Amino acid sequence: MPGDDYNVDSFTAFFEGWLLRQQQYLDELLTATRRHPDDAADNGDLDDLISRTLSHYEEYYEKKSRIAQRDIFLVFSPTWFTTYEQSLLWIGGFRPGLIFRLVNESINDMWDDQVLRIGRLREDVKVEERMLNNDLAKIQEKVAAPPLLEFFRRQSHDGVTGGTEMEALKAAFQSVLASADFLRRETALKVAEILTPAQTVRFLAAVAQLHLRIRACGLQKDAERRDPGCGGVQ
């Protein structure tokens, strides 16, 4: 039987705690970027910070995978995200190509070889994204009239278990989500392998900053939607 990890309320509590740790990691990353602006000095201590930060993301994906096994529709319309965050989702998470925008914005000292390898990886990821988009489109063809996001919300809210066709649909969504999450994780890891430790710390700091900024923006938008008069509150 599923444990607490499969319960939406406990996952929401986990996610809120995970975001607090995300802020703590960001603080560490920003401190490290000031202490190690480049790779001229011995940056051995950066490897530990990078490893812990990547493990932090891995923990989220592991928990997410568990709840997806119980309610795949919920993961495609996650209640632990704000409305704004949900509007930015691509197959249950961020679009892998976003990573390269963050690399470009945070790293300005790549060697020619690094630029070449990042460029090749970007093209490979584009191909994978197109394939996953095609896979998702094929699944969508099996879903009747309602828009896909509304379909997910209704299925999750109703707790639909369904028969053979519904089970096949769930399996198809679980498969495309697993592939998308794998691409997200592998892309980040491959980028970290290409970059130096100091560059990786800057990249991870940019990732965390964007994530937390989007979260804060989403919370503000939701608050304003509930109470239009709160828009001016700092």
Order of helices and strands: HHHHHHHHH
Largest sheet: none
Structural class: mainly alpha
Q: Which bin fits the share of residues in helices?
A: over 70%
Low-confidence runs (pLDDT<50, min 5 residues)? Answer: 1-5, 230-234
Cα-to-Cα separation, first versus last residue: 45 Å
Total count of strands:
0
Discrete helix count: 9
Q: Roughly how many Å is the radius of gyration? A: 19 Å
Look at the structure and give the mean pLDDT: 87
Shape: globular
Q: What is the strand content?
A: under 5%
Provide an overview of this structure.
The protein is an all-alpha fold and 234 residues long. It contains nine helices and no strands. Helix 1 runs antiparallel to helix 2, helix 2 packs antiparallel against helix 8 and helix 5 crosses helix 9.
Keywords, separated by commas or semicolons:
disordered N terminus; 234 residues; 75% helix
Task: Provide a quick synopsis of the model.
This protein is mainly alpha-helical. It has helices at residues 8-35, 44-70, 72-76, 83-87, 98-106, 112-140, 148-158, 164-194, 197-226.
How is the secondary structure organized here?
Blueprint: H1 8-35, H2 44-70, H3 72-76, H4 83-87, H5 98-106, H6 112-140, H7 148-158, H8 164-194, H9 197-226
Helix pairs in contact: 1-2, 1-9, 2-8, 2-9, 5-9, 6-8
